[in-house]
UniProtKB/TrEMBL annotation:
It comes from the Bacteria. It holds the Pfam family TetR_N. The keyword DNA-binding applies. It comes from Paenibacillus lutrae. One of its GO terms (molecular function) is DNA-binding transcription factor activity. Signal peptide: none annotated. Keywords: DNA-binding, Transcription, Transcription regulation. This is TetR family transcriptional regulator. Transmembrane segments: none annotated. Residues 9-69 form the HTH tetR-type domain.
Length: 212
């Protein structure tokens, strides 16, 4: 592809859009600012106008994607006419839909294996989990052993959603294809929550995904 004139505006948003797919398909370490620019048809100087280095570009992707997800989740909570389990089900389905509608976003946010790169996402993952946990703990409040379950149950619910999303992404399945199964999955999880069956499940310490 011929290099495009610098005069033709290369926006920050477009860089983030195209770099996201490159990071997922090629891997962080295989890319340089020069190779990213070349894939986009620009000189590397055009990228340096917006980002000083590859790490800054990658971090900007992480921050943007988590900001979008958190804004959607918070908006759902604010606008919800119902609380408790119905709100939790709505949040869980929305989270699954976000992951399957935006697989490249989700892979960078939650499925990066490189320990060095995880530093960019840990704090944002925590914000996402804390918001979700708050809704779960409000449901658990007043139940027997609720203090003990306050950490265990949110983690197991969250990891169950993550497993559903990562499996579907691995096999290229869209939310439209998986919507009915996603609804059944969320309903099953929430039914188990109400029956306190999750209290017997082991807690999970971190997000992980092993592809087949």
């Amino acid at each position: 592809m011929a290099r495009k004139a610098v005069a033709q505006e290369l926006s920050r948003e477009r860089i983030l859009l195209e770099a996201r797919e490159l990071f997922v398909t090629c891997g962080y370490r295989a890319l340089t600012m020069r190779s990213i620019a070349k894939a986009m048809g620009y000189s590397h100087g055009a990228l340096y106008y917006h980002f000083k280095e590859k790490a800054e570009l990658f971090n900007a992707l992480i921050m943007q994607d988590f900001s979008d997800l958190l804004q959607r989740q918070r908006q759902t909570i604010v606008e919800s006419a119902v609380l408790g389990v119905p709100l939790l089900q709505k949040l869980m389905l929305e989270f699954i839909q976000f992951g399957l509608d935006n697989p490249h976003h989700y892979e960078i946010m939650f499925m990066i294996r490189d320990e060095e790169l995880r530093q960019y996402s840990r704090s944002e993952q925590a914000k996402c989990f804390d918001l979700f946990s708050t809704v779960v703990r409000q449901i658990l409040a007043g139940q027997p052993d609720s203090a003990e379950q306050a950490y265990r149950i949110p983690w197991n619910l969250f990891m169950s959603m993550h497993g559903f999303i990562s499996y579907s992404i691995h096999y290229g399945q869209t939310f439209e294809e998986m919507e009915r199964m996603a609804e059944e999955h969320v309903e099953m999880l929430c039914t188990n929550l109400l029956s306190s069956n999750f209290s017997e499940l082991p807690a999970v310490s971190r997000l992980s995904h092993e592809t087949a």
